[in-house]
Amino acid sequence: MTQANAETSPAGLFGDDDFLRVERRGLEPVPDEKRHGHPRELFWIWAAALADFFSILAGALLVQTVGLGVGDAILVLLAGALAGALLLGPMSVTGVRSGLPQIVYSRLAFGRRGAYVGGLLTLLIAIGWFSYDCAIAVYTAQALPVFGGGAPAPVIALMLVAMVAGCIAVAVFGHRTITIVQTVQAPAFMALCVVVFAVLLPRFHPGLRSQLHGWPHLAAMLLGFTATFALIVSWVTYAADYSRYLPRRTAALPVGLYSGLGSIATLAGCGILGVLVQSIDPRADLAHLIVGGLPVWLAWVFVAFIVVAEMSSNYLNVYTAALSGLAIGLPMRRWLAALVVGLLGGAFAAWILVRFEQTGGNFVVDYLNFLTVTYVWFPAWCVIVLLDFWRRRQATTWGWVEGVRWPALAAFALGTLATLAFYNQRGTGGPFTGLGSSALFKDGVADVSGFVGVAATVALALVLTRPGAGQAGAAASMDPAA
User: Fold this and answer.
1) Residue 81: which of 217, 225, 255, 243 has the closest Cα?
2) What percent of the chain has pLDDT over 90?
3) Which run of H or of E encompasses 400?
4) pLDDT of 406-432, one tens digit each?
5) How far, rounded to the nearest angstrom, does the alpha carbon of residue 8 sit from its chain's CA centroid?
6) What's the pTM?
7) Cα separations (Å) of 167 from 131, 133, 163, 313?
8) How far apart are CA 164 and CA 349, in angstroms?
9) Angstrom distance (rounded) from CA 156 to CA 349
10) Are 56 and 267 in contact (CB under 8 A)?
């Protein structure tokens, strides 16, 4: 019995897709009789994915690191979130129509083996995000007054172990457990942010203006747009994993709207809170500004919620990393793959915390560079998959090439290179600046990589992947066991 066939065996002691029962389904399509749910579930899944300290930090960095004022930072947040949602929303529709995980669905565009590229990158980046999410939760908890200059090493280890164990447990149970937990966690965290906003409101300086003017100011806004856009577009390779159980006939519009609006709601809401908190003191540490400005009891509640909120995005990281691992050939069941990638991510998180403790590095700058450098391939990948989906929208049967669709892979590679050419880390203290960015902006901090990457990939894909191109070879069925 193959791995894929093993995953389709009867549920036995395990649920097919039940709360707190291990999901046995792996890569195979969800059959119509097993479909269930409503598109509004996607709102809470993606709201929870971005309802965390990273989203608050994203807003704060626009003031602290990028140098924007309150008004222009909020404008950038809204624009970047909307741009990302316009890609994430339609990508969720692919799961509804096919019943497949996202990386498996991408085989339609890239071929079975061509999809290994996106699968491997998603696996590695999901583990990386899991690690950073865990590390930043512990980093934030150390700002509690009870710890003074920092928590003792045993306390840090205990917090990290508890987070990793909780994330792995939910991801091992699988899709339905994740959906229900996210539906509870997202509104709870949003309500807490409203309370924090109300308590800190008298200290905000909403009139804070940027000290930059003219082109440097516009360049900073472009950099801020990229960082915000990256936060949502970095989820596109996860999208179908959480929509594939919805009934096949579910209308595309609500699927796209609920997914996109969920991501916008919390990224914009938490980001605006971060902007306003940072306006209290543009150079101060965000975690200390929040925790130090709250009553002690509320500070404890906030930090506890931060830990839980970081876990909400990590459920998705571990779950999707496991599916991506299976899609590139890891010979194990989904729940075991979730356990393995969770343990690897936890070990990497421990290394991150130790490294910063030993070197005294800037965690915030390191995070921002990790965010932007890992996003550069997502826009091109997303454009290729969505264009292929649009071309197939009237098809009654779908199949992929068993090998590689080289034109699609070439368009993806060239689109990613175009993104990289205009990628610019100067504004975040990173070491890399693309040749296009250097030629166009000299020593400036502007980053237009997202605009260039999407536009270039659309043009390349329209030319290189026209219907019939690169589809020679035997077509496989939609079943990964084929």
Assistant:
1) 225
2) 61
3) strand 400-401
4) 999 999 999 999 999 998 878 767 777
5) 28
6) 0.90
7) 11, 11, 6, 9
8) 9
9) 11
10) no
